[in-house]
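A quick aside before the break. I want you to see a complete sequence-to-structure record at least once, exactly as it would be stored in a machine-readable document. Don't worry about memorizing anything.
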Amino acid sequence: MLSRVAERLYWMARYLERAENTARMVTAFNHLALDMPRQVRLSWRGLVAITGNEAVFDARYPEYTEADVIRFLLGDPRNPGSILHCLTQARENVRTTRDRVPTEVWETVNELHLHARYKLDAGEGKRGRYRYLSQIRDRCQQITGMLAGTMSHDQGYEFIRAGRNLERADMTSRLLDVGAVGLLAREDGAEGAEALAMEGLLWMNVLRSLSAFQMYRQHVRRRINPADVLRYLIQDTQFPRAIAHALGEVEGSLARLPRGDLPLRLALQVKRHALEADIEPLLEARVLHRFIDDLQREMGDLHGLISNTWFHPGTAGGRQVQTAGD
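That is the input. The structure line, written in tokens, reads:
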């Protein structure tokens, strides 16, 4: 397979996954805003912090209001991580590899991009936001299912699978890093049962941002607490959006590709780092942040090695036309 084709398929998957994750995250945060007591003020800055684009936001907006954050995350053309930008990039990558993916995939990606573009005004408003984001999430899932069910599971498919799952692991780690910290600006002085209830709502929001709440409750049959949530989302090997599972899927794809010894070795190392983590110390925010930083650095190295091995072989530093931090 040509390296440029492999790279475009890989990035198509990453951009589609990123758009779906952002839609899922904003939807869950809107639900959280409805569930929290009136005296509790939620910080919209946390959503931007999860995407890692605070500097981009700060250069364009004076403060983190709901309207500006929603505009920035959904369709700001100057935000390389907005849903519309991701879908524009995904569409371009599919357009230039149309002979490698089923026709239905190209048609659905094109329709999804048009929906994101022309229904953006409705999505930015409170009344139409849920419907707008739900359609983006559902169509992204539809495309994932179409690729799995109608595309030959050849090398091209493995690059798609590797890109999707590396992006998925990255988003889960970002959600855990910010988690409840930064999402809630407590000014009410709540204590005891009230504080415990609000902590539960915040961790429930983390789970719902990953569509993990129902599966979590099936596996953990007690009151939601930070240790159980961290253990489940970092180390569970069955839930698709848990870090260990997503990295295991990356590992499986790399094992099926030629000349993949070095990337495969690093993928195994990153997965082992997640599986062998001692959860209890991670309950301290500073320790969790350092752990997630290390994990994200390793995933960034894995992306670079994938790029060096298959997309730009022999290029020092892994030249990236489409960067992981877009």
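Two observations worth writing down. The two ends are 25 Å apart (CA to CA). The beta strands are 41-42, 184-185. We'll return to this after the break.
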